[in-house]
Amino acid sequence: MNAFDAIDSGEEVSKDDFTPQVEPQPTWCPGCGDFSVLRSLKGAMAELGRDPEEILLVTGIGCSGKLNSYFDSYGFHAVHGRTLPLGRAAKMANHDLEVVAAGGDGDGYGIGGNHFTHTARENHDMTYIVFNNEVFGLTKGQSSPTSPKGHKSKTQLKGVAKDPVRPLSLALSGGASYIARTAATNPNQAQEILVEAIEHDGFAHVDFLTQCPTWNKDAGEYVPYVDVQESDEYDFDVSDRREAAEMMHETERALYDGTVLTGRYYIEEDRRTYQEEKQHRGEMPETPLAERYFDEDYEWERSFERLDRHT
Amino acid sequence: MTQDELIWRIAGGSGDGIDSTSQNFTKALMRHGLHVYTHRSYPSRIRGGHTYVEVRASDNPITSKGDGFNFLLALGDSFGRNPSEGAVYGDEEVKPLFENLDDLNEGGVIIYDTGVIDQEETEELDERAEENDWHVYPVDLISIAREHGRDVMRNTAGVGVTAALLDMPLDPIEELMNEAMGGDILEANLSVLSDGYEMAKEEFDIDHNVTLPENDHEEEQVFLSGSHGISYGAIDAGCRFVSGYPMTPWTDVFTIMSRELEDMGGVAEQVEDEIAASMMAIGASHAGAKALTGSSGGGFSLMSESIGLAEMTETPLVMVEAQRAGPSTGMPTKTEQADLEFVLETSQGDTSRLVFAPGNVKETYEQTRLAFELAYEYQMPAIVLYDDQLTGEFRSVPRSFFDREPDPDLGTVTTEEALEELPHDVGGRYERYATDNDDVVNLRSLPGQRGGRFLATGNEHWPDGQIAEDTQNRIKQVDHRVEKVQRVREELAEKPSPNTFEGDEDADVALLTWGSQKGVVEEAVRRLNEQGVAVKSLSVSQMAPLRREEIASFLEGVSKALVVEMNATEQFKGVIQKEFGDYGDLLGSFLKYNGEPFEPNEIMEAVEITMDGEGGATSSETTLRLPRGDRT
After folding, report:
1. How far lies A61's CA from each of A71, A80, A92, A111, in Å?
2. Residue A152: how many CB atoms within 10 A of its CB?
3. SS3 label, residue B621
4. Which residues 73-92 in chain A show a CB within 8 A of chain B?
5. Which domains does chain A have, with CATH numbers?
6. For position B286, what pLDDT does the model report?
7. At residue B581, what are phi and psi to the nearest 5 degrees?
8. Which terminal CB of chain A, N or C, has fewer other CB atoms within 10 Å?
9. What's the rounded Cα separation, in Å, for the pair B350 and B312?
10. Dihedral of the CA atoms B265, B271, B275, B278 (nearest 10)?
């Protein structure tokens, strides 16, 4: 019995299958890094052979939220900051779905920060792409959680007095089991990382540097970039939490000094996903809940059989 | 209260076993053949503070906690002592005795534990006992307990003494102990129980008039609360996903659901906050599970944005709002009905939601099932609004009431086969939000279904879900969402009303109430009718959409009506007046907002003052605002 034919359909897919025929042209500003996320996500899904209708793409509010309009799959464009609880619950109701959440740095590290920590901690088998452009774009240039200290904007007239959030370190201390940073200007690496993130069993966090040519000209285009795995200057073990933490710390600092470091930072392969953990404890069924409602032979328990404790 | 019933109150410190003792004693009364009803009062404290549970038992069905009480078992507060200091905090030990005397009816019975409550401090009691014809039985409960086990078993000793003074057989109590305990603990408790019983039989000349009524149930009864009713209604509606965050009193439902769903292959999630809880319920529902979330006032405030998202994306969402006294943290363990306007209106934009406020245990079950049915049929939020009173209100209900078929149907969900025939945009996206077809409700597709992909969004959208600001489409989409509520109104109009009528059809004076105050209002009306006073009541639980015609015809021909509710700002009266402006001056208000529910005598007094027409204050902690009496 399977009420969801698109799941594991095995049908051949190409990048174009993820391009909607209605409104195929994104309305992001020319030169925006968001184009690159869209392109690499399409590429990654095609490379992995995912059926557009087995994917649930959940987005937040902001320029990044428009991703859903330009990527053809099941989509849920939620409210600001709430992609993760919505996406992870969909995964719990039907764990055969490929769930990807995506949003901006304000969405994920600001208003949705609490969900970021807790979804990472729970290690849901899903991918979270954060469009990090260090600014609020759609609302026209206010400082965001990743804006550098001193960043001036209409709401931070004398410059931001706060240190920026450290996204990778936050994901690590939260408990994410795959953590990477890539940049829009590095499409090949971006696609490779997204493929790994989607394939990873557990919560995969990709901090995706997306330049904003309109509201954050100071940040430049994130070039030149350095891949920490390919550079001889950096040598650390991505499975070692302590070494990963140090490398993340350096990467986060370097960005504000003008050095763009990217790559894989932490990969934990042997940790149970949340679904596995719950199933191991007998707190989650092996067959997705969503299937049960289509199973005509399923015998639904009822409260009448459970009244003995009330006599 | 009437002579042929018992209202037994057990009072002590938090930690003295008041809850478990009262539960078992009440079940014993139920097995003995009586109808039972409990009322719980407890402080918002981790440890310490005083708590009581009241048990009303009668040969007739019971709908309220009654007026005052007639039997007090005052354990005293054994936690009123600081163990490291050996000192007593003021008169904490004695308080559970004296704090409870004001509501004790004339002729009432008092048992108190002399092992905790120093008899030197009870001189004032003798005086008051004489004035009120109370019958006082001091017993050293702690010594009886100590002989067989531990001091804490003094609550069992108290139950033994109670049984002796009521001439109640011990069998049902012993039976329950046998079911709940084992080994040495069981043996010790049984000995303590019978020692208390024997001692009281030997020591005391029983001269009080409080006796146990006689009754036999025709069928087996079960004993449960409004929180069980909601949980079991959800389970029988096929709900297998719950997400929540602890908050009193919502925690009751969350706890029951977590326990039950684990056994049923469901999923229960305690999450980081109420925002996550409600967003998760949306996510689970969107993916094809029947989901429940909920909270109490403060936590529910955090869910406001989710309600709007469910309305806009037309995602089924069933929520529980367990009210407590507000605003803000308010009084966490005290009851109130002041979240009505909030629940009806919260979240920006025009709303499309359903709200039910069940009035008793049976209604919590039935209306939660109805909430699921309608939410999944019409793809919108349905909220079950109840309050702290119903969470602590355990009642006896015939077991057969729950003997019903489950209804796990997902409602208006499509299948892959049906999707082939349904409209799609030129790119193949399913037009899940079509507005130009005959059906008001579109079938929704679930992620993973072949041919069903669409975009759900909190933005206004085209039929395929793509974001839209086109004016014509905007009007169609808004009308579509509003029209769904109208369709629910029509569907419900065809079904038996969940609202209930009591009293003389032709009465000139009427009471309107909602939610948990149904039972007490109806008891007051019955008693007034018995006294020859013509009055009637309508207890409303279908809050949104309202049954306009039913309420209009109820008020037809009435010259004065009081809206009875537990808040200060006349919220339900406001709702009625919004719907029926022409009844403006016909309606007065009878309000209570001290944290305790109404008692029947308070309502009876308010009716008498209203009929009298000359005004005047009530003798209770209530507020009466008389109607001007003319229809404008």
Report:
1. 16, 5, 23, 11
2. 14
3. coil
4. 73-79, 82, 84-92
5. 15-310 (3.40.50.970)
6. 98
7. -55, -30
8. N
9. 10
10. 10
The partner residue sitting opposite B453, judged by closest CB among A52, A85, A307, is: A52
Name the residue among B373, B394, B398 with its Cα closest to residue B384. B373
pLDDT tens digits, B113-141:
998 888 777 888 899 999 999 999 999 99
Asked if residue B228 and residue B168 are part of one domain, the reply reads no
Look at the block and give the residue holding tokens 């990527």.
A71
- Of A22-36, A253-267, B479-493, the least confident: A22-36
- Of A7, A22, A74, nearest to B426 by CB-CB distance is A22
Contact list, B277 vs chain A (CB under 8 Å): 85
Using an 8 Å CB-CB cutoff, list chain A residues near B406: 300-302
Cα Dmax for chain A? 73
The confidence score (pLDDT) of residue B87 equals 52
| Cis ω for the linkage preceding B545 (within 30 of 0) | yes
Residue where a domain stops, chosen among B348, B369, B402: B402
In the numeric block, which tokens belong to residue B379?
Answer: 């793809």
Residue A302 touches partner B, C-beta closer than 8 Å? yes
**β-pair type (B623-625, B587-591):** antiparallel
Give the model's pLDDT for residue B88.
53
Average pLDDT over residues B291-315: 98
C-alpha dist (Å) from residue B328 to A110, B278, B332, B567: 25, 20, 10, 15
CATH number at residue B574: 3.40.50.920
Distance of alpha carbon B458 from alpha carbon A211, whole angstroms = 26
Same domain, residue pair B189 and B258: no
- pLDDT above 70 covers what percent of chain B? 96
Number of domains in chain B: 4
For residues A31-45, give the mean pLDDT. Answer: 97
Pair (B294, B175) in one structural domain: no
Please give the pLDDT value at position A150: 95
Q: What is the pTM of this model?
A: 0.96
The pLDDT of residue B83 is 52
Q: Are residues B150 and B104 in the same domain?
A: yes
Which of B402, B430, B445 is the C-terminal boundary of a domain? B402
A56's CB contacts (< 8 A; 6+ apart) are: A73, A74, A75, A76, A87, A90, A97, A98, A99, A100, B287, B447
Residues of chain B contacting A86 with CB distance shorter than 8 Å: 279-280, 282-283, 286
pLDDT band at A82 (very low <50, low <70, confident <90, very high): very high
For residues A114-119, give the mean pLDDT.
Answer: 98
pLDDT score at B631: 47
| pLDDT single digits (tens) B152-182 | 999 999 999 999 999 999 999 999 999 999 9
Residues of A in contact with B418 (CB under 8 A): none
The pLDDT of residue B304 is above 70: yes
Q: Check: CB of residue B621 under 8 Å from CB of residue B607.
A: no
Q: Are B554 and B430 in a shared domain?
A: no
Q: pLDDT value at position B1?
A: 42
B483 and B594: one domain? Answer: no
Amino acid identity, residue A124?
Answer: H
| DSSP H or E run through B29 | helix B18-31
User: Domain residues for B577?
Assistant: 500-625
Q: With the C-alpha atoms ordered A266, A269, A274, A278, is the resulting torsion angle positive or negative? A: negative
Residues ≥6 apart with Cβ < 8 Å to A172: A179, A241, A244, A245, A248, A265, A266
Helices B471-494 & B361-378 angle (0-180, nearest 10)? 140
Interface ipTM = 0.98
One domain for residues B145 and B172: yes
* Of the partner residues A7, A73, A79, the one whose CB lies closest to the CB of residue B458: A79
Dist. CA A50–CA A98, nearest whole Å: 8
Average pLDDT, integer, range B296-318: 98
Asked if residue B168 belongs to a domain, the reply is yes
State in Å, rounded, how far the first CA of chain B is from the last one. Answer: 39
